[in-house]
Automatic annotation (TrEMBL):
Molecular function as annotated in GO: transferase activity
Lineage, opening ranks: Bacteria, Pseudomonadati, Pseudomonadota, Betaproteobacteria, Burkholderiales
Provenance organism: Limnohabitans planktonicus II-D5
InterPro entries given in the database record: PRTase-like (IPR029057), PRTase_dom (IPR000836)
CDD domains referenced in this protein's UniProt entry, alphabetically: PRTases_typeI (cd06223)
SUPFAM superfamilies, A to Z: PRTase-like
All copies of domain Phosphoribosyltransferase, residue ranges: 10-189
Protein name in UniProt: Phosphoribosyl transferase
Keywords: Transferase
Length: 212
C-alpha cells in the first residue's frame, strides 16, 4: 500500500538508483504518472517527457482496457477483446475517439514541452500501476520504434499477468509489488486523486518539485 503517488515515486526512484548519472529520459504516461515522472527524473538526474498513449475501452466497461494505441495510430489489441464485445467495427470507433483525445493532448502539451527524441537514450517509461498492462505495452512499443539505447519499464504495482507481458518488451523491468489480490491500481493507494491535464501541463513546465 502506497500513501500516494509521491510515496510511490520515492520508492520507485530508490529502486532505479542504478541508472542515476546516466542522464536517463523519463517518459511518463499521462496523466497520473506525470508528477511521479518529475520526481524520478530529479532523483536520477535525468529529463522528463511524456509518451502519449490511450487505452481502448471495452464496450460499456470504461475501466476495462481491451487494448491501447499511441499518437501515431499504432495499436495493441488484447487477443480476448472480441469476448467482451469489442469487434472490429467497435474497435475502429474506439480508436477514432482515442485518437481525437491524443491529438488534443499533444496540442496542449507540446507548447509547454516539445517532445524529446529518445533515440540512443536510456529511456525509463513510468506509470502509476498496471492492471491489464495494455497502456504500458503500447507505450513500450511506441518508444521502441524510436530506437532507444535501453528501454526500462518502471511501475510501483502491477498484476502478475500484466508484468509478464511488459517484461517481454522492456530490456529491464522494475516493479515494486505484484499482489495476488490485484483488482485495480487504485486499491494500492490510500490517496489516489485524478491528475488533470492542467496539472500535467504545469508539471511539465515547472522548475520546482510537484506538489502532491
Amino acid at each position: 500500500m502506497f500513501k500516494d503517488r509521491l510515496d510511490a515515486a520515492q520508492q520507485l526512484a530508490h529502486a532505479l538508483l542504478a541508472y542515476r548519472g546516466q542522464h536517463p529520459l523519463i517518459l511518463a504516461i499521462p496523466r497520473g504518472a506525470v508528477p511521479m515522472g518529475q520526481w524520478i527524473a530529479r532523483q536520477l538526474e535525468g529529463e522528463l517527457d511524456v509518451v502519449l498513449v490511450r487505452k481502448l475501452r471495452a464496450p460499456h466497461q470504461d475501466e476495462l482496457a481491451v487494448g491501447a494505441m499511441d499518437e501515431h495510430g499504432n495499436a495493441f489489441i488484447a487477443p480476448w477483446a472480441h469476448e467482451v464485445g469489442a469487434d472490429a467495427a467497435y474497435l475502429d470507433l474506439e480508436k477514432a475517439r482515442q485518437m481525437h483525445t491524443l491529438r488534443q493532448r499533444r496540442a496542449l502539451y507540446t507548447p509547454v514541452r516539445p517532445p524529446i527524441d529518445p533515440k540512443g537514450r536510456l529511456v525509463i517509461v513510468v506509470d502509476d500501476g498496471l492492471a491489464t498492462g495494455a497502456t504500458m505495452l503500447a507505450a513500450l512499443q511506441a518508444v521502441r520504434r524510436q530506437a532507444p539505447a535501453k528501454l526500462v519499464c518502471a511501475i510501483p504495482v502491477a498484476s502478475a499477468h500484466a508484468l509478464r507481458q511488459v517484461q517481454e518488451l522492456a530490456d529491464d523491468t522494475v516493479c515494486l509489488s505484484t499482489p495476488d489480490d490485484f483488482q485495480a491500481v487504485a486499491q494500492f493507494y490510500r490517496h489516489f486523486p485524478t491528475v488533470e491535464d492542467s496539472e500535467a501541463v504545469a508539471v511539465l513546465g515547472a522548475q520546482l518539485p510537484p506538489q502532491f
